[in-house]
Write the C-alpha cells for this entry.
Amino acid sequence: MNVSDILRRKRSSRVVTIRMNETVETAARLLRQEDISALVVKDVCRTEGNVAVGMVTERDVVGAIARHGGAGLAVKVAELISVQRLVSCRSSDSLDDVRRLMREHHIRHLPVIDDHGLVGVISMRDVGLAGLDLADGDIPPPAAFAAGAPSRTASRI
C-alpha cells in the first residue's frame, strides 16, 4: 500500500491551508472549524500556485499561547514554522517510507507533494489505520472509524 491508496480512501480530498502571514488566532479558528489537527502553510510572498512551505499544528498553537499568553494569538504563523525544513512525501511513497519520515522527524502530519504541487495531507492516524486494515485483510474507509463504526478488534462487554 502507498500514500495514493490512503488519499483515495480519505473522506475528503480537500486540504485546508493557511498563509504564513496569518495569525495563530486564525490558525486556531480554522483547526476548530474544520475539525482537524494540522494546516498546510503556504507562502504568499515568494511563491505562486499550490506550494506548501510548512505545517502548523494544534501543538504549535498551544505552544505559542503557553509561551506568550494571550499575546500568542497575534503571533504570525510564519514564526511557528521552519520554511527550510518542510518534510513531505509523494503519493507514490510506501507506508514504510512515511512511517520512517514521521519517526525520524518526530511529526504526525505530512503534506503530499507531487510535481511541485500539493495533492493532500497524510497523518499518523491514516497510516496506522491502513496498517490495521492490511493486517485484517479488510480496508474500510477512515470515515467509518470517524463515524464511530466498531472495530473488529475491539472487545465487547
User: Anything to note?
Assistant: The domain at 3-146 is CATH 3.10.580.10 (CBS-domain). Residues 142-157 have pLDDT under 50 and may be disordered. The helical segments are 3-9, 24-34, 58-68, 95-105, 124-136, 142-146. The CA atoms of residues 17 and 40 lie 5 Å apart.
